[in-house]
Amino acid sequence: TGSHSAEAESQTEWTDVQKKIIPWKNSTPSLDLETAFQDRAAKLGKSNSRLIVVASLIDKPTNLGGLCRTSEIFGASALVVGSLHYIQDKQFQHLSVSAEQWLPLVEVKPSQLVDYLQQKKTEGYTIIGVEQTAKSFDLTEYCFPEKSLLLLGNEHEGIPANLIHHLDVCVEIPQQGIIRSLNVHVSGALLIWEYTRQQVIKQKQQQ
Q1: What is the pLDDT of residues 50-104, one digit of tens each?
Q2: Residue 24 domain flag
Q3: How many domains are there within the chain?
Q4: Which strands form 148-151's sheet, in the order they lie side by side?
Q5: 3 state SS of 170
Q6: How far is CA 1 from the centre of its chain?
Q7: Is the CB of residue 89 less than 8 Å from the CB of residue 58?
């Protein structure tokens, strides 16, 4: 049918855009990403979000698939993963429910993260870590900048010390229970939603 062919054409076009921006180390992604963000907003009727979710330290396909789905649903501008091979994993695909077809994916290996974070700082992004430290901001009191990069930690080790030094701010989620840690996909989803609530929904209400 016409609608199916239009959808297939749009999907093919978006796949071509994705290919232009990955892997990060072999391209000059900044301009390509900006173009991709605008294309995606125009094609899908979504906000021009400037939230980059960095999941390079996460290695469970289920968490990555869930984050991909959450990032796409709330209109994040890109999801950064440690390897694009995860996309072919059946557990990833089961959780992502095809979100990877509509969300820009950028490959940045853990060893490349320092360089990547520094580059994003020069582009005006605030580097935000989900981490409990003595100077962490409570999520309920933190105001997200428009250009926010969310760095998520590994399932077991969290964010390593060498990357903590590159964060502009740490944000923690207030907790009431005895268990002191949330699943990383859940933590990421809560911050993605809060960014969306502050930056995107507020803007729509003001229009």
Answers
A1: 999 999 999 999 999 999 999 999 999 999 999 999 999 999 999 999 999 999 9
A2: no
A3: 1
A4: 105-107, 78-81, 51-55, 148-151, 126-130, 169-172, 137-138
A5: strand
A6: 34
A7: no
